[in-house]
Amino acid sequence: MMENMAKKKPRVRRSFTPEFRAEIVESCRRGDRSISEVARDFDLTETSVRRWVRQAEIDAGERDGLTSGEREDTAGPGGRVSISAWGRSSTLSSRYSESTGAIVAIV
How many CA atoms lie within 13 A of 66 on its CB side? Predict the structure, then answer.
């Protein structure tokens, strides 16, 4: 068994269009298939699909969190913000969630 695990190549990081993500989210929201079934059918990781569904709920106002637009505004051109960068800012403060490893809110 360990031999098979050693031979398995890591999955190449892929990127998806917003339209494709919206299609996947809509497939999950229809309710005829579970998130894991949708992920398996489209050869996606379940974690990614769950994250897309959660972000769509936030964007629709159904759940608390930063919308996609707010994430882009805070992340800047690179797309990601490190926690240490937030700590050095005198004009911004944030609440950091240790359980998710993400910035939960900008105060």
Answer: 16
In sequence order, the β-bridge partners of residue 103 are 96
Buried b (16+ CB within 10 A) or exposed e, 57-86: ebbeeeeeebeeeebeeeeeeeeebeeeee
* Contact status, residue 90 vs residue 104, Cβ threshold 8 Å: no
User: Binning pLDDT at 50, 70 and 90, where does residue 103 land?
Assistant: low
Average pLDDT of the segment spanning 8-32: 91
Name the residue with tokens 């936030």.
58
How far is it, in rounded angstroms, from Cα 68 to Cα 99? Answer: 21
Question: Helix, strand or coil for residue 61?
Answer: coil
Question: Could you please report the per-residue DSSP string of 73-107?
Answer: HHH-TTS---HHHHHH-SS--EEEETTTTEEEEE-
Per-residue model confidence as pLDDT tens digits over 26-63: 999 999 999 999 999 999 999 999 999 999 999 999 99
